[in-house]
Every structure is written in structure tokens, then in C-alpha cells.
């Protein structure tokens, strides 16, 4: 009996020691599992934005739109405290950049600088478009307009819009107008001019202003609607004449230049609207924060002054109103394209 009791006691003591020795191991295992669980658990969402933002545009570097994108992007970087990186994706009438931005993740880290008037014209003149500014994006804010000006060769014997109309009507079908390219705002502005005045003038498209302006200055074209940064230096040099601005109101930088309405051409507006949009599905709080950041960025007097010198009229437009303006531009240029029978395939 004593021997059996002693054996049982030793067994119990041994089991107790085994349990005691196992406890640290078990504790370590539990800690390891807990640590692994923590590592595998999703990190808490950082406040937007916590990394660089890409700003896509459908124009090449160094142009008026690129200058606008970089100036606004720099201000947005300061407000949002994250880099805003400009991504130039020109081509196909703006479709390449538009399509690229539309397919981006709707997380607020890819934005599109919309040249709304150009996008509206492309939608109206191209048979098919890979993306739609109205359907595939949400508006953030309007940032301003880039009006064009009507210029003619210095050698042309006209000094006003009425004189130009009379000059063109005297030679129906024999004179031409230059443009930045088929399906551009520069092209459709002249088509609108033809519709409003009844002149018969032929279209000669170029691959941008840099190719069109030399022929215009040489008198091989009779007129052109062009951006202020590219055309105005030639006006100041005496090689071109500025007859009017295509905006609804006179420009502070060109106070003597009449609007088309003041020059006698009614129902003529081509403000070349610009603004920021985001891929459809971008969270509403992100859009709201971006809109507030744009408003703060555009409030800079320095930015407004710098852009005015480039022919850009900086103006903040809230998201809802900007969305309505996009719709208006789409309808306006669709009517012009249909009336002028402009179609690009």
C-alpha cells in the first residue's frame, strides 16, 4: 500500500512539473498568435490624401492647358500637403487622356483636368469615344476659362469684325480659315462664326497653333481663332491684328478688345471652360475635400495674376454648378457640329 501511494504521489508531482514547464511555452504561443493577428489585421484608414495625387490632362507639355495644370497643381499640393503630379496624355482629340483617367481607380488619387469645351466638341464630332466626360466622371470644381481671340494677318485690309465679314462675303468659297486641327475648339469657333455671319470660307486644319500661325501671318489664311498665349505675341509684334475676343465679357488683360457680341455677332460664346473631375464612384467625402482644396487654391491673388497674364480667367465654380455647365457645353457644341455638318471619323 505504501509503495503504491508513493508511486502515485511521484506521478502527480511529475505531471504538475510538466504543466508548469509548459505554461511559458503556451504563453509564448498565445503571444505569437496575437502578434500575427495584429499584423494580418487591416490597418486603420489614413486620412485622405496620404500619398501623391495624379492630375491627368489631354494636352502636351508647355501649352496653355499644361501651364494651367501645373500652376493649379502646385497650389493644390500646398493645400493638401501632398504632391500633385501632372500627367500629360495627349492624342486622339483628347480621348487618350480622358479614357486613361476614366479607367483609374475611383479613390481620389487620379484626377482629370477637363478642357470641357474641347471634350464637348470631340463628343459631338467623333463617331465613337472611349469615355464620356458626363457619364464616367463626377465634377469636383470649375477652375476658370481660357478665351480665344479672333486674329487676322496684318496685311489683310480689315480692322474690325464687320469689315472682316464684308471682306469674306466679297469672295465666297475662295478664302480660308486656319485652325489648331480638325475637331478642336479653334475649328468649331470658326464654324460657329460662319453660321452666325453667313460667310463662305474654307477650313484648313493644322497640327496646332505653331504650324498654323506662320501661314496666317504670311496671308495664306484669312482668319483664325487661337489661344491668347500663342497668338498675342504676334499681335504685339505687328504681324497679326486682334479683332475680338470669343468670351462673353472683355478681358482685364485686353481691355480694348471687343467681345464678339460687341462687334455685332450675336449669340456667339466660346469661353473654353476648364475644371477638375474624378472617376465615377469616387467617394463623396473625397470629392468634397478636393472641392474645398480647389477653392482655397484658386483664392490666391498671385495665382490669379499669373494666369491672367497667360490669358486665363481663374474662377472657382462649385461642383453642382460645374456639372450643369458641362451639360450646357455638351449641348451647345453638339448643335454647332450638327448645324455645320462637322463629323470626324
Automatic annotation (TrEMBL):
Q: Which UniProt keywords apply?
A: Signal
List the signal peptide residues: 1-46
Q: Which InterPro entries match?
A: BUG, Bug_dom1
Instruction: Cite a single Pfam family from the UniProt record.
Output: TctC
Source organism superkingdom: Bacteria
Can you tell me which family this protein belongs to? Belongs to the UPF0065 (bug) family.
Check the record and name the PANTHER family matching this protein: BLR1237 PROTEIN, TRICARBOXYLATE-BINDING PROTEIN
What is this protein called in UniProt? Answer: Tripartite tricarboxylate transporter substrate binding protein
Amino acid at each position: 500500500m505504501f509503495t503504491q501511494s508513493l508511486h502515485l504521489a511521484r506521478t502527480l508531482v511529475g505531471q504538475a512539473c510538466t504543466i508548469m514547464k509548459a505554461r511559458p511555452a503556451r504563453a509564448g504561443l498565445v503571444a505569437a498568435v496575437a502578434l500575427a493577428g495584429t499584423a494580418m489585421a487591416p490597418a486603420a484608414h489614413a486620412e485622405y490624401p496620404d500619398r501623391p495625387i495624379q492630375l491627368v490632362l489631354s494636352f502636351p507639355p508647355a501649352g496653355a492647358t499644361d501651364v494651367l495644370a501645373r500652376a493649379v497643381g502646385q497650389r493644390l499640393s500646398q493645400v493638401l500637403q501632398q504632391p500633385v503630379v501632372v500627367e500629360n496624355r495627349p492624342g486622339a482629340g483628347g480621348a487618350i487622356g480622358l479614357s486613361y483617367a476614366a479607367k483609374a481607380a475611383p479613390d481620389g488619387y487620379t484626377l482629370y483636368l477637363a478642357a470641357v469645351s474641347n471634350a464637348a466638341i470631340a463628343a459631338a464630332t467623333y463617331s465613337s469615344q472611349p469615355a464620356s466626360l458626363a457619364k464616367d466622371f463626377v465634377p469636383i470644381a470649375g477652375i476658370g476659362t481660357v478665351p480665344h481671340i479672333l486674329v487676322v494677318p496684318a496685311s489683310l485690309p480689315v480692322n474690325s469684325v464687320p469689315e472682316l465679314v464684308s471682306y469674306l462675303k466679297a469672295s465666297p468659297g475662295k478664302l480660308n480659315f486656319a485652325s489648331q486641327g480638325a475637331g478642336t475648339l479653334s475649328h468649331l469657333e470658326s464654324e460657329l462664326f460662319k453660321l452666325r455671319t453667313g460667310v463662305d470660307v474654307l477650313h484648313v486644319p493644322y497640327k496646332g497653333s505653331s504650324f498654323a500661325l506662320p501661314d496666317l501671318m504670311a496671308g495664306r489664311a484669312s482668319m483664325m481663332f487661337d489661344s491668347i498665349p500663342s497668338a498675342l505675341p504676334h499681335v504685339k509684334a505687328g504681324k497679326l491684328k486682334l479683332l475680338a475676343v470669343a468670351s462673353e465679357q472683355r478681358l482685364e488683360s485686353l481691355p480694348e478688345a471687343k467681345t464678339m457680341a460687341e462687334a455685332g455677332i450675336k449669340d456667339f460664346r466660346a469661353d473654353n471652360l476648364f475644371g477638375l473631375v474624378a472617376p465615377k464612384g469616387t467617394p463623396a467625402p473625397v470629392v468634397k475635400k478636393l472641392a474645398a482644396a480647389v477653392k482655397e487654391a484658386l483664392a490666391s491673388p498671385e495665382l490669379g495674376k499669373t494666369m491672367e497674364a497667360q490669358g486665363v480667367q481663374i474662377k472657382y465654380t462649385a461642383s453642382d454648378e460645374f456639372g450643369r455647365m458641362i451639360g450646357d457645353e455638351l449641348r451647345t457644341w453638339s448643335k454647332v457640329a450638327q448645324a455645320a455638318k462637322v463629323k470626324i471619323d
